[in-house]
Amino acid sequence: MTTMLNTPAASAATGGRRHLLSIADLDTAQIRTLLDTAAEMHGVQQREVKKLPTLRGRTVVNLFFEDSTRTRSSFELAGKWLSADVINISGKGSSTSKGESLRDTVLTVAAMGVDALVIRHGASGAAQQVSQWVDAHVINAGDGTHEHPTQALLDAYTMERRLGSLEGRHVAIVGDLTHSRVVRSNLLCLRRLGARITLVAPPTLMPAGIASWAAADGFDLSNDLDAVLPTVDAVMMLRVQRERMSGGFFPTPREYTVGYGLTRDRLNALVAANPDAVICHPGPMNRGLEIAADAADGAQSLILDQVSAGVAVRMSVLYHLLSGEEGSAQ
Amino acid sequence: MSPGDVSRALRRIAHEILERNKGADDLVVLGIPTRGVALAKRLVAVMEEVEGRPVPVGALDVTMHRDDLRRQPTRSPMHTDIPPSGIDDKVVVLVDDVLYSGRTVRAALDALSDLGRPRAVRLAVLVDRGHRDLPIRADHVGKNLPTSSSERVQVRLSEHDGVDDEVRIAGGEHR
User: Which CB contacts under 8 angstroms, 24+ apart, belong to A24-27?
Assistant: First the structure.
C-alpha cells in the first residue's frame, strides 16, 4: 500500500525530496498507483463537496513561464480541492520581465516556504535544474520540448477509462513531433502500460535521431496517416506549435491539413475501421489545422474528458508527492 | 477467535444493529477498507436474511482524512463506494475490524460529513483492543480484547486473506 514517487536519481540529488520531473523516472507500478489514485480523486470530483482536507497547511506554487490554460488551472484546482494553498506566478507580470533570472525567481519563491513548485518553462530540463536549487517538491508541468509528465498520465488515464487496459492497444501520435513535449512523455507512459505506438508526422517534423530511438524502444514511425489510421484504437493529435516554428516545416497550413490533419474524411475512415476508436488532443487545438471540428466534437472525442481527468490526475500527483513522511528516502 | 467465534459475533452485532434501529429502515452500512468492507458485507447478509429486504452497503475510504499522513509512508487511497440512496438523513453504521486509537474512526466521521449529513452514525467493530487516543467508543463490539500497546491484533478474513477467519494477538515483545 505504500508507494513512492521518489527516484534514486532524484532523491539522491536532492536529499530525499520527491519530484515528478519525467515519466522516465517512474516504473510501471508507480504509474499504476498514480492512475488508481486518480480514479478515486475522480470520484471526489463528482461529489457535492469536492474538498478533501488532505494537504491542509501545505503551499503549492504554480510558476508558469509559458502560457497555459488547462495545466495551470487544473493544478490550481487540484491543489485547492486537496485544501492546499495555491498561488500562481506567471512569467509575464512577474519580476522575470524586469530581468530576474530563473534561479533568482525560483529561490525567491522557495524562500517564502513553499512545499511544492509546479513549473512550466520554455527550456528543456528547467524543472530538473530547479529541483536541484530548491528544497521543495518540484513538478514538471512542461519543460521546453522535453517532457510534460502529468499530461501523459492524464492521457493514459482518459484512454484507459474508455478503452479498458491499454495492453496491446495501438495508439497513433500524430503531428508536430519535433516541438512536442507531450509526445515524449506519452510515448514513455503508454509504452509502460503496454500500448503499441506509431508516431506519424511529415518528414520535416520528425525529430532528428528518432529512428534509432524507435528501433531501440520498439515503436513505429510513419509518414502516411491514411495508412495508419484504420489500424488504431486511439489517435492523439498534437498541436502544430507555430510559436516554436521559425518557418520551413511545411509549405502552407492547408497542405499540412491535407496530409496530416484529422479531417472529416479521415474521421469517417477511422470510425468505419474501428467504431470504438477514440480521439485525443492535449489542447489547445488549432481547429481546422490539425483537427476538424467534427473530429474534435464528435462521439469519438475524449478531449473534454482529458480536461476533467487532468484535475484528478494532478490531485493524485500532489497527494503522492506531498503526503508521507518528510525527508524519508522510501 | 476462531471462524465460529467471528461468525457468531457478527450475527449478534447484526441483530443488535437491527434491534437498536427497530428494523432496517434508513440503515446504510459502510465498511472502512480494507477488512471493514468484507465485515460490512457479512453483517448486511445477516440483516437481509433476518429482515427479508435489501440493506444498502458500501465502502468509505478514510485515507485522505487521516491525521497521520505526514508521519507515515504515503498510502494509496482505497475505493469509496456510497450506495446510490446516499447518506443524508440515514442511520450510517460504520464497520471496521479493530478499534484501537480511534483515529481511523475520527477520519471516517470527517469523511462522512463531506458526503452528507446522516441522521445518526453508529460504530460496529469486530475487536475493541482499547488504548483510545480520542473520545470515541463503539456501539457494537464483537469482542473486547485487552492488549498491551506493544502487541498487534491480527484479523484474517476468508474473503480477504484466503485463509480461515481468525483473530489473534501477535508480536508482543515480551520483555
Answer: A24/A147, A24/A188, A26/A149, A26/A192, A27/A192
| pLDDT tens digits along A246-274 | 767 888 889 999 999 999 999 999 999 99
Of B70, B76, B115, the CB nearest to A33: B76
Residue ranges of B 112-131 with Cβ closer than 8 A to chain A: 114-116
A42 contacts in chain B (CB < 8 Å): none
Domain assignment of residue A329, yes or no: no
pLDDT tens, position by position, A81-102:
999 999 999 887 778 778 888 9
Average pLDDT, chain A: 89
What's the alpha-carbon Rg for chain B, to the nearest Å? 16
Q: How far is CA B27 from the centre of its chain?
A: 15
Q: In this model, does residue A62 exceed pLDDT 90?
A: yes
Contacts of B64 in chain A (CB under 8 A): 44, 52-54, 82, 319
pTM: 0.89
With contacts defined as CB-CB under 8 Å, which chain A residues touch B61? 40
What distance in Å separates the CA atoms of residue A268 and residue A287, rounded to the nearest whole number? 17
Residue A80 phi, psi (nearest 5): -65, -40
A36 and A110 in a common domain: yes
Nearest to B79 among A1, A40, A319 (CB): A40
Q: Is residue A3 part of a domain?
A: no
A134: domain CATH number? 3.40.50.1370
Here the ipTM equals 0.83
Tracing cell 534509432 back to the chain, one arrives at A212
Q: Mean pLDDT, to the nearest integer, of B72-97? A: 91
Residue B70: name the closest of A137, A92, A64 by CA.
A137
Residue A328 has what pLDDT? Answer: 40
Q: Using alpha carbons only, how large is chain A's radius of gyration in Å?
A: 19
Q: How far is CA B56 from the centre of its chain?
A: 15
Quick one: A155 and A300 in the same domain? Answer: yes
Residues A183, A103 contacting (CB under 8 angstroms): no
To 10 degrees, what angle do helices A28-45 and A182-192 make? 100
Distance of alpha carbon A41 from alpha carbon A11, whole angstroms: 26
User: Are residues A178 and A236 located together in one domain of the fold?
Assistant: yes
A158 and A295 assigned to the same domain = yes
Domain B3-170 has CATH 3.40.50.2020: yes
